[in-house]
Amino acid sequence: MLNTGSLDEAVAVAYGWPSSAAHDPQESNRLLLELNRAIAAGEIDYRPFGTLPTVVPVGTLAPALDLPTIDGGRFDLRKERGHPVLVSFLRHAG
Amino acid sequence: MKVLGYERQLDEAGASVVFVTFDDPEPVRRGLLAGLEVPYPVLVDRERVAYRAWGLRRSSVAGIWLDPRVWWRYASLVIRGERLRTLGSDTLQLGGDFVLDGDGIVVYARPQRRDDRPPVGELLRALRSASG
To answer: In order of start, what are the domains of chain B with their CATH numbers?
Structure first.
């Protein structure tokens, strides 16, 4: 049985998995085995870290932003149409 | 969160502001937001889905922690007697600032390369321009 112990959250995110998988050995095992199976079957290319993200270009429609708020509410960027919006993504904020 | 304190100028531009964090809400409340009046929504993107969708990447360890400007910034905080916050779950994830116009079109994009942020004046100019 594959035993990954605990993954770095960044590794999980790089694979496109929920960061919570990093702290759940059973879930990370399951995801790794599924990834291995899909690679072996030729269903996906082996590019675990993919390509670097490209920042959303000026002049294009902003991607969706529909997330919970820190105080338990919900925010949907689409409801902000009609006026300018500053969207500020923070770095580590702990 | 440099724009905090510029609410009047933001109101004059008819602009709204939204912050996005990927950290656990509780440490964010105890750390970054402690003692701050934040009149804007703070969104939580634990899985960093939005960070990826907007093209915000992770830096290298060298890109952040070997940058003398980062150390100088921390030294300045200590000299001013400010309390250093504990670090979040991933010190390498970069942020960024985007200004959208009323149609949701990106008119300004400034992803971080390291611990850099654009001056508030630059953001206000973009917001005023977007308000037409």
So the answer is: 7-130 (3.40.30)
SS3 string, A35-87, reads: HHHHHHCCCCCCCCCCCCCCCCCCCCECCCCEEEECCCCEEEHHHHCCCCEEE
One-letter amino acid identity for B125? R
> Does residue A4 have a pLDDT over 50?
no
Does B30 have pLDDT greater than 80?
Answer: yes
For an interface test with B, give the residue of A70, A74, A79 to mutate (most B CBs within 10 A).
A70
**Best B11, B26, B33, B43 residue to mutate vs chain A (most A CBs within 10 Å):** B43
Which residues of chain A approach chain B closer than 8 Å at the C-beta?
9-10, 13, 18-20, 52-65, 67-71, 73, 75, 77-78, 80-94
The ipTM, to two decimals, is: 0.81
Encode pLDDT of B63-119 as tens digits: 555 556 656 665 666 676 665 555 456 778 899 999 999 999 999 999 988 778 899
